[in-house]
Specification:
alpha/beta, Metallo-beta-lactamase, Chain A, Rossmann fold, six-stranded parallel beta sheet, 9 helices, 28% helix, 21% strand, disordered C terminus, binds zinc ion
């Protein structure tokens, strides 16, 4: 673990996992196209999927020197967003961001056997247990149905890359459906990459054509807060109601989630139980936790009899020398 992220050395190879700066003379693995996982300086070789490269490009980050596969490395679908992968090098598996529940066009993650597991634990606390996707879809359809009955437009709010496409896909049977302009660009790229998302008009065009005056309608937007001018305008002008989608809706702390009219715990990450099952499934002898509740999740795993610790400035070479 360095300032630049996690560096793995095995079989004379060096690989940087989601590094802040892609380094020369090494392989740089980019697990997916969320901004906190993209390198901002590019040297050396970048290992990532075609989808991640295209999505990163749309966000103005060109992953040059890109390869989709290398002999020594095996990539596993991590089920987080389109193109996301975990990486297996020798006996070490790095999850990147991972989700084992299927959601719309995303299947659950594939999990390999390994000796050392480096896992994210964004929701690695017992309070975070998420419902099945089918249950969420049913509940949200009920809310939309009730709102439509009263002539109220509905805004579905989720991260611009990932969640927003899943929402467009899961609720595409409602019409008319519009997209916030920033979501439309991302949806169009998904369509181009082979994902069937319903075509829709962006909000600027819909408003200019007077389409938003014909209520009710539904719109997929980024995860904007209630104080955001766009949301305020949609509420005051059209009487829209908001449904926010985030795993944080399950948090005990009222600061997170629950700030929209409705908050639904749909997440692109594993919940607590999924994380524990993931650890079991790999058969790992040693588990390193990163991102999120690293101390608490490692402690919970140790209680279950695993050997776990947060990954902080330790060398994996030391493990192999044991
Ligand atoms: Zn992510
Ligand atoms: Zn992340």
């Amino acid at each position: 673990m360095t300032k630049n992220g996690i560096t793995l050395s095995a079989n004379g190879m060096t690989i940087n996992l989601d590094p802040r700066h892609a380094m020369p003379d090494s392989v740089n693995f980019v697990s997916h196209a969320h901004t906190d996982h993209l390198p901002n300086r590019k040297n050396g070789l970048i290992l990532t999927t075609r989808e991640t490269r295209e999505l990163a490009m749309l966000r103005g980050n060109d992953l040059i020197n890109h390869v989709e596969s290398l002999d020594e490395f095996k990539l596993y679908d991590s089920g987080h967003i389109l193109g996301s992968r975990g990486l297996l090098l020798d006996d070490v598996f790095y999850t990147g961001d991972i989700c084992t529940r299927g959601r719309g066009f995303l299947g659950g993650a594939n999990i390999p056997k390994c000796k050392v597991l480096i896992t994210e634990c964004t929701f690695g606390r017992e309070e975070f247990i998420f419902p099945q996707t089918a249950e969420i879809v049913k509940r949200v359809n009920e809310i939309i149905s009730e709102m439509f009955h009263n002539g109220k437009p509905v805004l579905l709010l989720g991260y611009q890359l990932g969640k927003a496409q899943t929402l467009s896909y899961l609720f595409g049977h409602w019409a008319p459906m519009y997209y916030h302009d920033s979501v439309k660009g991302m949806n169009d790229l998904h369509t181009w990459l082979g994902i069937q998302i319903k075509e829709g008009i962006g909000h600027t065009e819909a408003e200019a054509r007077g389409l938003l005056d014909k209520k009710p309608w539904i719109m997929v937007c980024p995860l904007l807060s209630e104080g955001n001018p766009f949301i305020k305008q949609m509420k005051s002008k059209f009487g829209a109601i908001t449904i926010g989608f985030s795993g944080w809706a399950r948090s005990r702390q009222p600061l997170y989630g629950r700030k929209h009219d409705y908050s639904i715990p749909l997440s692109d990450h594993c919940d607590y139980d999924e994380l524990v099952r993931l650890v079991h499934k790999t058969g790992a002898e040693k588990i390193y936790t990163i991102h999120g509740f690293v101390e608490e999740f490692a402690a919970a795993l140790n209680k279950m009899g695993f050997d776990a610790q947060p990954l902080k400035g330790i060398s994996l070479d030391d493990f192999f020398k044991q």
